[in-house]
From TrEMBL:
It comes from the Bacteria. InterPro entries: Acyl_CoA_acyltransferase, GNAT_dom. Residues 1-134 form the N-acetyltransferase domain. Keywords: Acyltransferase, Transferase. This is GNAT family N-acetyltransferase. Its EC number is 2.3.1.-. It holds the Pfam family Acetyltransf_1. GO terms for molecular function: acyltransferase activity.
Amino acid sequence: MKYSTDVSLENEFNNEHSIHHKSAKRNESVQPTNIIVTDDKDRWIGGIIAEVYWNWLEINDFWFDENFRGKGLGSSLLSKTEEIASGKGATSVMLTTFEFQVRSFYELYGYKVVGEVRDYPPGSSYYTMVKSLEPIMD
């Protein structure tokens, strides 16, 4: 089965609909990076919705249909998103995830937990994770 990836750089939703975002993220300072993965029948099977601003990539949504998980597509998509963001000037990445989601997946790719809300939802935790995109100097 073959897959295709479409990149959309046209989303300005927060700049248009939020007074706070308008003042903090002036026009052209927010650089959307939205990537959709489709199967050979042109059905959406995964994607990332993200923005680059203040030299950060913020990943807001990252998903794959359960039937397509474990095939390396998520790793490839995350890497492609980081590469695009780096080209737009991002030096770091931030995202949030729940304990029952894919914290361990992100940790495999160098993300570190910098914040935790315990018992949200009850019996679990909600994490803020970050990663540097800058080369590590020895």
